[in-house]
Amino acid sequence: MTNGYELYGAEVSYFTGKVRAYLRYKKIPFVETIANREVYKTVIMPRVGWPVIPVMVTPEGDTLQDSTDIIDALEVRFPDPSIYPATPRQRLAALLLEVYGDEWLKIPAMHYRWTKNREFAIAEFGRLSRPDLPVEAQRKIGEEMAKPFAGALPALGCTEASGPAIERSYEGLLAELEAHFAHHDYLFGSRPSIGDFGLIGPLYAHQYRDPASGELMKRVAPHVAKWVERMMKPPHPKEGEFLPGDDVPDTLMPVLQRMMREYLPVLLATAEQFKAFLAAQPDMASGEKELPRAIGMHDFTLEGVTEKRAVFLFDLWMFQRPLDYLRSLEGADGEAVGKLLNMAGGEAMMTFPDYPRLARRNFKHALA
Questions:
Q1: How confident is the model at residue 2 (pLDDT cuts 50, 70, 90)?
Q2: Could you tell me which of 49, 41, 153 has the C-alpha nearest to residue 108?
Q3: Is 269 exposed, middle or buried (0-12, 13-18, 19+ CB in 10 A)?
């Protein structure tokens, strides 16, 4: 048994921000420990088997990893107020925006961090890893720690050629969110949803907190910055309501349309490539070998610019959540979400091809 919920993470971490915001809103007692070198050695590696944050240890001593798994496990223990809207249009939109924030907004988050905030990030990495060392030594460590993160840019499709398109897309998203948060405290009213928690990871840890990105957000999208601040320091924890009548505000439609335009084609291509990959790899299809995180490269298009990126299986695991919910709906509920998807340009979700289900085992994705 431990003394309470223990969160191992960092302010600089995308997904730690998502979990931290959730814990604060739900008023779940927790202690956060910075994941420095010693914590990775003595806690994270023994419990998880690979270096990753956030990690949570429950009062019973159980280990949770991955922001979505952590939140869903805690929702069972602390169900009120639920962060999942009960009505079909809001719930599907919230699930979609969680996937969008978790997986697709990695592209601008990583682009801005490593092309416009690099020196800050290196200093942060060094300071967090070895707070006991002088600044010069911390910087050397930070430079080494930064290499795999900065080196991941091409896999995400972040290149010199795609950089301007990434910035146009992100600044377009900021403008769309600014128009929404000028009228609403959260995505669907006065209570944050799982969609808000999906968006807060990139929009806090990278885009608000990193200095150059933070200056941009506060200058061109001050209402978005205020939303970030509400998410990280909720003024009314455990309070608020979702909009009545299953209303998805018109101001959210441009955001959903952006997701469908940019990301849905990637998800469709990923599903098809995954099926082809398993067909050519019988040992993978049988579950005898561990699935890789990525299965090759494919094209994607952003703001009229086509670039290559890795085919990530984790996207499909996350996408199962809204897809499963969509397929569970019947009758009037199914018609209502069908109209929403048509308005968003997401008709292809209605006929999304089946693909082998993914699960999480031993803190990694695997065939279900």
A1: low
A2: 153
A3: middle
What is the structure's pLDDT at 1?
52
Domain residue limits, the chain: 5-77, 88-247, 262-367
d(CA 220, CA 326): 35
Over the stretch 10-51, which tens digit does the pLDDT of each residue have?
A: 999 999 999 999 999 999 999 999 999 899 999 999 999 999
What is the mean pLDDT of the segment spanning 103-117?
97
Topology of 5-77 in CATH?
A: Glutaredoxin (3.40.30)
At the top level of CATH, the class of 88-247 is mainly alpha
Structure tokens at 199: 């968006």
CA distances from 343 to 132, 170, 199, 329 (A): 54, 21, 21, 18
CA 215-220-226 angle, 5° bins:
75
Q: Residue 364's Cα: distance from chain center in Å?
A: 16
Mean pLDDT of 175-202: 98
| CA distance linking residue 318 with residue 27, whole number of Å | 26
Q: What is the pTM of this model?
A: 0.96
Q: Which of 77, 83, 98 lies closest to 4 in space, CA to CA?
A: 77
- What does the H/E/C string look like for 244-304? HHHCCCHHHHHHHHHHHHHCHHHHHHHHHHHHHHHHHCHHHHCCCCCCCCEEEEEEEEECC
Q: Beta strands of the chain (E only): which ranges?
A: 5-9, 30-34, 55-57, 63-65, 294-302, 305-312, 358-361, 364-367
